[in-house]
Write a structure and sequence with these properties.
Length: 88
């Protein structure tokens, strides 16, 4: 899977954007992340926000994943792959 990254929040956050749009079921994703011991902070039809690895992590239905705080682009992609492999 290929990604581009976008720096957000004045450089304190990174978003991994898959080259091809995905279809992530957010209810399933929230259940998987809760099963992993993550606290789900926000859940609606647009996104879920969880505490994961000490970061606020936002998962979008198109497969975008945002991490705050995070500045390392390679880690951003690695983390996004790990999460998307679990929740898809």
């Amino acid at each position: 899977m290929r990604f581009t990254t976008a720096r957000l929040c004045g450089g304190s956050a990174l978003m991994a954007v898959p080259a091809e749009e995905l279809d992530v079921d957010l209810d399933h994703a929230a259940a998987v992340m809760e099963g992993e011991g993550c606290k789900v902070k926000t859940r609606d039809e647009m996104m879920i926000v969880v505490e994961w690895n000490g970061m606020e992590t936002t998962i979008y239905p198109q497969g975008k994943v945002m991490f705050f705080p995070l500045k390392d682009k390679a880690l951003c992609i690695q983390h996004a792959l790990e999460i998307l492999q679990k929740v898809r």
